[in-house]
Structures are given as structure tokens and as C-alpha cells.
Amino acid sequence: MMRLISFLGFFIFSLVFCTAECLSSSIDNANLPSRDISIYKNIKTIDGVSVAVDIFDTAKIKQTFGVDLIRKKIQPLYVIIQNKSSSRHWFSKAGSDKTFIPSGEVPRMVYEGVFSRFLKGGTFGMLKWPFLVPGAMIDKGKSGIITRRIKNKASLEEIPDVYIEPGGEIQGMMFVSVKPDNKIVIKVTSSQNLKKKEFTFEKERGVNAK
After folding, report:
1. pTM of the predicted protein model
2. Mapping DSSP to helix (H, G, I), strand (E, B) and coil, where does residue 23 land?
3. Which end of the chain is more exposed for a tag (fewer CB within 10 A), N or C?
4. Which sequence spans correspond to the domains of the chain?
């Protein structure tokens, strides 16, 4: 009996380790959006303020994060805002889109705990618990990798909520809820007259927007 438990423990550990390593490798080698605003297809300018958005499609999401966020109704964006006007402008993620999702919330939304599914399953779920334990460990490993990837300041830094000075530029990741109309709205507010500039983009189905 002890040998069987030891074998199962070794098997589960090996499975989790291999899954995590494969995911980590595929994610770390992913191509990230360009930081050069001039090459973006989705770019709009209003009174000297330019906004470019890369709206990730499913293929790019899987390549970058190692999981399909669209299935969880999460749409990743890479946003660049360039201010060539004479006044500074305020940008905030929540102010741009009411469905904005903080990057720290994404991993929690992606993986519903396997043990939660087990509890929902009633008596039948209880009978499946030996098969759910490996899944729980793998889910935890995946979630940890995604968390580290999202928080990696060197590659996927979340775009900040800041004033953009004349001649300044900000850029970074932003997460919003998937919308039926596929429209993305980015808003910035002039500190001079408090007027909002609204930039609307539309995701092309099955095509990266950049």
C-alpha cells in the first residue's frame, strides 16, 4: 500500500512538473507586442494625442499566456498612448472601460478550483476525488505560471493610470471583458479643459489588430 501511495505521489509530482515546464517554455518564448507606435494598424489621433491598440486574438493569447483567456471572457490588449499636444492628459484604465479587469484578478478568473468543481458534483463528485487531485495540482501550477507571466515587469507591464505630459508616452497591457460588439474604447482627459477624447477600435474576428 505504501509503495502504491509513493508511486502515485511521484507520478503526480512528475506530471505537474512536466506540465509547468512545458507551459513555462511556450510562454517565455512568446512574441510580445511591438513598442513602436508607428507600425500599428489600429492607431488614431485626436488633437495631437495618438492611441494605438493591439487587440489579441485567440492564437496570440495562447502564445503569450499559455491559455485561452477568451473562453473566460477576458480580452487582453496592448495599449500605447502618445501625447504630442501642448497640454497634459489623464488616463486611467477603469475610466476608459467599465469592464476593465486588474491584471492581478486574471489568474483567479482563469482557473476555477478543481475542488470547487468536486464539491458541486455531490456524491458523484466525491467518487471522482482521486482523479481530481492531480488536476488540482496542475491547475495550481498553471495559475502560478500565468500569475508570474502577467506580473513580469520586463515584458507584460500593465499600463499605468497617470498624467501624460506633453511629449510623453505610456504603454502596457490592459485587460477588459469580451464584448459582443468587439469594440474597444480608450479615453483620455485633457487637464486644460477637462474634455475627454474617445478612441474607438474594433476587433477583427480571427485577426490580430496590429
Report:
1. 0.70
2. helix
3. N
4. 2-202
